[in-house]
Amino acid sequence: xxxxxxxxxxxxxxxxxxxAADCKFVSLHELDLIETGGGVNEIVRYLxxxxxxxxxxxxxxxxxxxxxxxxxxxxxxxxxxxxxTHADLRVQRMNVSHADPRISSxxxxxxxxxxxxxxxxxxxxxxxxxxxxxxxxxxxxxGKLREAKSKLADMLCQAQDKRWYRHIQKVLxxxxxxxxxxxxxxxxxx
Length: 190
Known about the structure:
Elements: H1 4-17, H2 28-31, H3 40-55, E1 65-67, H4 73-83, H5 87-90, E2 91-93, H6 116-124, E3 131-132, E4 138-139, H7 142-157, H8 166-180
Parallel strand pairs: 1-2
Antiparallel strand pairs: 3-4
C-alpha cells in the first residue's frame, strides 16, 4: 500500500466483508522499517532493490503491490519491470471502474472509492466542505480533502451500514483474485 491510511481502510473493510480477509495489508514502512516514504517512487525503488527476495516468496504468500487508481502507466510499468515474474498479476492499481462515478476524478487516492453517502454525512457533520452539483456529483478541494483524510477514514471504518464498503470491496476482490490465481484455487466472491 502507498500509506498507512489505505492499509487501515482496506484491513477494516476486508475484516467486515471477509473479502481478502486472509491478506495482510501493510504500508512500505511497515514492510521495511528502513523505508521512510510510501509513495510510488519509494515503492518502485524498494521493488528494484528487493526483486530477488520477492521472487523467492512462497507461492501461497505473494507480495501484491496495490497502488492508488491515479498512478500513471509509466510508473506502474516501472514497478512491474522491477517486480519480475507475475508482475502483471501482482502489481496493480485500484481499478477506477469500481469507484462511484458520482465521485469527481479530481479526488485522488482511496477516497475516490468511498461512497457518496459518506461525503454527504461528512458535509452534514461539517467535517468537510463538499460540493454537490445538481446531478449529485461530488467534488472537493484538494487541500481540504487532504486535511480531512483521517476523519473520512474514521467515518468509513465506523460505518454501521456495510453498503458503505461496496466500492472498496470491489478493490479487495481484485486483490483476492491476484493472491489466489497462481494457486489454481477457485474463488467464490460475494
